[in-house]
Design a protein that fits this description.
Elements lengths: L2 H5 L7 H11 L3 E3 L6 E3 L1 H20 L3 E2 L5 E3 H5 L2 H7 L5 E5 L2 E9 L4 H11 L8 E10 L13 E11 L2 H21 L6 E4 L11 E8 L5 E11 L1 H5 L4 E2 L5 E2 L2 E8 L1 H10 L16 E5 L6 H17 L4 E3 L7 H10 L4 E5 L1 H5 L2 E6 L5 E5 L3 H26 L1 E3 L3 H11 L2 E6 L3 H11 L2 E6 L4 E3 L6 E8 L3
Parallel strand pairs: 3-7, 15-16, 15-17, 20-21
Antiparallel strand pairs: 1-2, 4-6, 5-6, 7-8, 8-14, 9-10, 9-22, 10-11, 11-14, 12-13, 17-18, 18-19, 21-24, 22-24, 23-24
Helix pairs in contact: 3-7
Length: 476
């Protein structure tokens, strides 16, 4: 067994310790000298690159273009939209000195880019012919978080933020929901995370938005994770930044805007949804390595087995599979098996002297650990098929877990019992008041994760007033 796996705490014994150990042992990230800041190591960044490539292709397929905007934002820009700056003020980091001179105006390090982007849009948009404007940027942001955890909540993180401008409120709302659907498809099809989608409650809306929609995922420990959000900004920012255009009637009017974002916290979500006591489990579509060849040699047959392993690697890599061959001579095959399980590689390809004689290999799945003997002829095709099976099975397993841990509460006593003892998603009516929402949060530490698109009527479990379906959970 791998030394790393032996050290890994069992997930059910201490989920927090397990998570932190796994991030380090799988070489995903490392702590930096400044609180809340982390280095994403090559393996962790390779996972992010796979996710980024998938999502970026989806953005471009829906007509969006990438751009880049400044990191530093003048304080006066943030102050233009009062609700926006109030929402982010506790998390802002400021630059006050440039070189050796004190700046005339403080500059905020980008917490999000609505304000700086609106200043550019004010100049770029003049006519209805300039709309819709569909722009996305990939960048880093900084929010001065007090309690941090690698990937899940960090002071600096990587993300994308889409910023679009539309002629009408209807077009902006359509865009907001379209991008929510793009995120949902990415979670299901690439990340095998079965998110729920819906609207945030007013208290949980993005600062300055008319409406915020969310993708909420359920982690393996029963907590929820806000995985991505899409915001209908209405005309709030357009009015604050004096963005106007001449419409088809030659009248000068304010456009409507959206913004939407998805970040590296998704890597934390992947760990918590799919990880187990042996380490990571990565969906094949976003795994940096889809399959690793581990040659099994002893003494005099090492040279022959090594040559066969290298030849097999070249053959499979040439078929388009993302492959590795582990030719390390210092560790035993068993040690290597555990190391690649820790890293979450979807398939292990074992090749020993007897396999060479029989012209076969042994395939071992990371998701189920099942073994399969496969002939060398047609191996590439079988691997492709097996990877698809693993992708489908991981989504099915995560969906079954989510469904088994989504419960309907009939009384407030039952609600509090589920939240405390079982966690997961709890479905219950909400009367729509801040008072009830806050009472539940204070007494149970559960928050409204989303308001489903299809809501049923019922009586609020706290106030007894008429309400509609909401989904609650404790969250990261």
């Amino acid at each position: 067994m791998s030394e790393a796996v032996e050290k890994l705490t069992k997930r059910n014994e201490d989920p927090s310790k397990w998570y932190l150990q796994l991030v380090r042992l799988a070489k995903l990230a490392d702590y930096g000298p400044v609180r809340g800041m982390f280095a994403i190591r090559p393996y962790g960044f390779a996972i992010w690159e796979r996710i980024q490539a998938d999502l970026d292709a989806r953005f471009k397929a829906t007509g969006h273009q990438n751009a880049y905007f400044p990191l530093l934002i003048p304080e006066s820009f943030l102050r233009k939209e009062a609700e926006h700056v109030e929402g982010f003020d506790p998390e802002l980091a400021w630059v006050t000195i440039g070189g050796r001179e004190e700046l005339e105006e403080r500059l905020a390090i980008r917490p999000t880019s609505e304000s700086i982007i609106c200043d550019f849009y004010r100049n770029w948009i003049q006519s209805y012919r300039d709309l819709p404007l569909l722009i996305n940027q990939w960048c880093n942001v900084l929010r001065w978080e007090m309690v941090t955890r690698p990937f899940l909540r960090t002071a600096e993180f990587l993300w994308q933020e889409g910023h679009t401008v539309h002629a009408t409120a209807g077009e902006a709302r359509e865009e907001t929901l379209k991008m929510l659907g793009v995120y949902r498809d990415c979670f299901y099809e690439a990340l095998t995370i079965p998110v729920l989608t819906g609207a945030k409650s007013p208290s949980e809306r993005f600062a300055g938005a008319v409406e915020t929609f969310t993708c909420e995922a359920l982690m393996g420990d029963g907590r929820a994770l806000q995985a991505a959000t899409s915001h209908d900004l209405g005309q709030n920012f357009a009015r604050a930044f004096d963005i106007t255009f001449l419409d088809e009637n030659q009248e000068r009017v304010h456009p409507c805007q959206t913004s939407w974002g998805f970040s590296t916290r998704t890597i934390g979500g992947l760990i918590l949804v799919h990880g187990d006591d042996r380490g990571l489990k990565l969906p094949p579509k976003i795994a940096p390595t889809e399959a690793v060849i581990v040659p099994i040699w002893r003494g005099s047959n090492k040279g022959a087995v090594r040559r066969e392993a290298e030849a097999l690697y070249s053959e499979l890599k040439g078929s388009g599979l993302r492959m590795e061959v582990d030719l390390d001579e210092e560790h035993s095959p068993g040690w290597k098996f555990s190391e690649h399980e820790l890293r979450g590689v979807p398939v292990r390809v074992e090749l020993g002297p007897k396999d060479i004689e029989k012209n076969q290999v042994v395939l071992v799945r990371r998701d189920t650990r099942e073994k399969e003997f496969v002939a060398r002829a047609g191996l590439a095709e079988r691997l492709q098929g097996l990877l698809e099976e693993i992708q489908d099975n991981m989504l099915q397993q995560a969906t079954e877990f989510r469904d088994a841990n989504t419960r309907q509460a009939e009384t407030y006593e039952e609600f509090t019992e589920i939240i405390e003892a079982k966690r997961g998603f709890v479905v219950a009516p909400w009367d729509g008041t801040d008072e009830t929402e806050q009472k539940i949060k204070e007494e149970t530490k559960a928050t409204i994760r989303l308001l489903p698109f299809d809501r049923e009527e019922g009586k609020d479990l706290v106030s007894g007033k008429p309400g509609n379906t909401a989904i609650f959970a404790r969250a990261y």
